[in-house]
Write a structure and sequence with these properties.
- By secondary structure, this protein is α/β, with parallel strands linked by helices.
- Helices cover about 45% and strands about 20% of the residues.
- The protein has a six-stranded mixed β-sheet.
- It is globular, with a radius of gyration of 22 Å.
- The termini are far apart.
Length: about 325
């Protein structure tokens, strides 16, 4: 009897294996949702849309971008962390994805998700953020901006994509390094934060190059500094904070794709292959270059190492900011 059961079990497993393989081979055979945890027009959205279009061409299924904004990205990130691990829901995340669970600890609350609920698939881009101010502002240099902030502590306002978000942390870094006090005005995403700057509702913003580039070209915004290690294409004349003598201020806003952690390995591999192809797609390269954002593709384990190192570094920034009530 035992031998018969073992034989039946082996037959069952043997039948299941081709079925599982066939399912993997057919993936994807229906729409794959790409979640962006912010409103349209921000850095993650700027990256997600050309990547999603390239995946549609490759897979021949729709890849709709779904903007699920709120709580500085926690809502969208958490939705993907809890999604069915079947490969049909993926996340195009900002660098704040590794920060928000740490920030939740400051409030003594359970985070909306934990990093072990998300599997890194691929890094797509990593850009230094830029300090942007209205072109009509009185500041033409970083030194003028900092000097004015010191004369008027707490009066110069800056917008961000939310508390502890990818656009909040670099300004907190600058404030600590330059010993200045500014007024933080959080929004639900990078796009409304940028709209507030262009409309004159706030006076400064740290942003990835993609969203602000059109406004700089059209003369509405001026860029005073970069958080990068070296000048970047399109902003070669913009000084880095490091070159101005500030330390501990290197910061990059990166975009990377994640899936629910328990996704089957063959499906994860198929997603990673698709993202690698998208990163090499000429239309994606052109779209991101036009937006001032360069491709920086890192697959799987390389992305995981990159994100883990950034998480450790940024956790210290979150702790320095402290609790925001």
């Amino acid at each position: 009897m035992i031998q018969r059961r073992a034989l039946l079990g082996a037959i069952s497993l043997g039948a299941a294996a081709p079925a599982a393989w066939a399912q993997t081979e057919a993936f994807p055979n229906r729409p794959v949702s790409m979640v962006v945890a912010f409103p349209p027009g921000g850095q993650a959205d700027v990256v997600a849309r050309p990547v999603a279009a390239a995946l549609e061409r490759l897979w021949r299924v729709p890849v709709p971008v779904q903007n699920r904004a709120g709580a500085a990205g926690e809502i969208g990130n958490g939705a993907v962390a809890r999604a069915a691990p079947d490969g049909y829901t993926i996340l195009m995340a900002l660098s704040s994805v590794v920060v928000l669970p740490e920030a939740a600890k400051l409030f003594g609350r359970a985070p909306a998700y934990t990093l072990d609920q998300l599997q890194p698939l691929a890094l797509v881009s990593a850009d230094p953020v830029l300090l942007a101010v209205p072109a009509a502002s009185p500041w033409r240099t970083l030194e003028e901006f900092i000097a004015d902030a010191k004369r008027r502590p707490g009066e110069i306002s800056y917008s961000s994509s939310g508390n502890y978000s990818a656009l909040h942390l670099p300004m907190a870094m600058l404030a600590a390094a330059a010993e200045i006090d500014m007024l933080h005005v959080p929004f639900q995403g990078g796009a409304p934060a940028l709209t507030a700057l262009v409309a004159g509702q706030v006076q400064a913003l740290a942003s990835g190059p993609g969203p602000i580039s059109p406004h700089v070209r059209e003369g509405r915004l001026r860029v005073l500094a970069s958080w990068g290690a070296r000048p970047i294409a399109g902003f070669e004349d913009v000084p880095t904070l490091l070159s101005k003598g500030f330390s501990g201020v290197e910061y990059y806003i990166w975009c990377g794709a994640y899936a629910p952690a328990s996704i089957p390995a063959p499906i994860a591999q198929r997603l990673r292959q698709g993202l690698a192809a998208a990163a090499a797609d000429p239309d994606v390269v052109r779209a991101l270059n036009a937006a001032g954002s360069a491709i920086d593709h890192r697959d799987g384990d390389a992305f995981a190492r990159f994100a883990a190192a950034d998480a450790e570094r940024l956790a210290r920034v979150v702790q320095r900011i402290g609790r925001i009530d």
